[in-house]
Amino acid sequence: MIIQYHPWFKENLRKFPRYIQEKFYKQAEFLLRDIRHPSLRVKKYDESNNVWQARVDVNVRFYFKIKNNIYFLLNIKRHPK
Prior knowledge:
By secondary structure, this protein is α+β, with helices and mostly antiparallel strands. The chain has one domain: 2-Layer Sandwich (YaeB-like fold), CATH 3.30.2310. It has two helices and five strands. A five-stranded mixed β-sheet has the order 1-5-4-3-2. Strand 4 (about 60-65) and strand 5 form a beta hairpin. The longest helix is centred in the N-terminal third of the chain and has 16 residues, at about 20-35.
């Protein structure tokens, strides 16, 4: 599997503090190795559009689609409580 970023994904990622950016890249490595990694807590977010959600930390999630051998990262944002 490989990762591709939507242009606004990286733009949104830059808005987060450095420590969140570093956590994201760690989680992205876990995603590449094993989508079922426990810290990711991956789940279907929008079944009709095939969008998945994964955890960066308790307050931040990232969203992606899977097509063939590619994870298309769509967005990263704070998780509403």
